[in-house]
Every structure is written in structure tokens, then in C-alpha cells.
């Protein structure tokens, strides 16, 4: 469907992407199926979209295992460590702008 727009795109997950309760027993299995479907190695991304402008997409990776509500968003430690590294490598002092979704 998205390929029909002929524009570059990338994807992140939200809680509705992990609601396959009848199909998957775990969030991990559900997330892996989502990544397989869209041929992604990780559920997050960073893309340079302009001169010294970076777009970062973070994904929620927890639905069934959320302690409070299935509608909360949760980026895991691996994703947050990756995010910290990206921010450290693309500093404001070097003229970088970072947009996070």
C-alpha cells in the first residue's frame, strides 16, 4: 500500500501493532512478525532527511506485558541506548537537528 505513494517512508510500531492476541502468545513474537513483514532488522530507525537533519523513529515494544495499561508506550533499554548513541554522534553544537517520532 505505502509503496504506491512513490515516496520514501519508514515505519514504527504503536500499541495497535502489537494487538495480535489470537495470533501471538508474546509481544516478542508479535514484534518479530511485524519486523519480518516489513523486512526490518529493528523496530526503530534513524534517517538523514536534510542537511544535518535527522529523523528518528522509536517504537513501542510492549503490549501484553505492560504493567499498567496496554495503551502505554514502551521503548526498551536496547532502543534507548541506541537513541543515546545517535544523539551523542549528532550534536547540536555540530549543527544537527533531530526530530523524534
From TrEMBL:
It comes from Chaetoceros debilis. This is Calcineurin-like phosphoesterase domain-containing protein. InterPro entries: Metallo-depent_PP-like (IPR029052), STPP_CPPED1 (IPR051918). Transmembrane segments: none annotated. Coiled coil: none annotated. It comes from the Eukaryota.
Amino acid at each position: 500500500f505505502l509503496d504506491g505513494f512513490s515516496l520514501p517512508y519508514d515505519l514504527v510500531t504503536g500499541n495497535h501493532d502489537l494487538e495480535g492476541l489470537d495470533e501471538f502468545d508474546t509481544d516478542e513474537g508479535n514484534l518479530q512478525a511485524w519486523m519480518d513483514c516489513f523486512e526490518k532488522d529493528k523496530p526503530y530507525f534513524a534517517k538523514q532527511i536534510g542537511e544535518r537533519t535527522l529523523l528518528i523513529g522509536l517504537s513501542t515494544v510492549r503490549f501484553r506485558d505492560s504493567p499498567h495499561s496496554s495503551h502505554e508506550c514502551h521503548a526498551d533499554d536496547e532502543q534507548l541506548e541506541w537513541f543515546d548513541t545517535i544523539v551523542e554522534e549528532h550534536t547540536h553544537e555540530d549543527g544537527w537537528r533531530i526530530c523524534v517520532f
